[in-house]
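User: My collaborator sent over this chain with a note saying "see what the structure looks like." That's all I know about it. Can you take a look?
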Amino acid sequence: MSATARLSLPYIAPLQAQKQYSYNEAMAVLDQLVQPAVLSRTTTAPPASPDEGDAYIVGASATGVWSGKDGNLACWLNGGWSYRAPADGWLAYVTDTAEFAVFQSGNWTSFVTTGGTSLAKLGINATADLSDRLSVAAAGTLLSHDGAGHRLSINKATSADTASLLLKHNFSARAEKLGIDPPEDPAYWFCRIEGFSSDRAGESPWRYELRLRVRRQDGTPDLLTLACPGTP
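Assistant: Without extra context I'll predict from the sequence alone. Here is the result:
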């Protein structure tokens, strides 16, 4: 074996002359792959005047000397481009989009966005997407205090929008909502709890409602609505 299995770093052979060549080549590969940061992962044509050490993830349908190197890590070293084919699980920080990219199943995909400080999506024993960015499959979910109280907030953009809790059976909605809606009486908040159930065959739908009249600190009104399934 003339190179390492994972990163293809060259071994120094027994009695090899000019051992420094193999050693220097291995150091250059490590410099390219350890803590990798690339300038972009969408660039398809090699830049005309790269600086020493500039690195890219070669974009799709690349041209010029990058042709056929789509998805490779390309680094400008000693006056030429050095290419490394990624393996599943490799991570690289992408400077122009301030994100981490992960290589999986032949493709680089975004892992972290918003300046590299926030997850774009997170699935815990489940699959998340850009609509349901947090997805959890578990017997329970615990949100605990950090030394004092604990508050769960659901925020909406405008008074015309809905902030709600939707309860489902087999991914089909059965009850809604925990929400803030436009007020019925402009002088007060109304905290309304209502529920319905028509989930089981032959069961008559039912509802219940509880309203708590409160006033906001700034004096402006809104309506908070909570709906839950169950039995009266």
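A starting point for your reply to your collaborator: The first strand starts at residue 37 and ends at 38.
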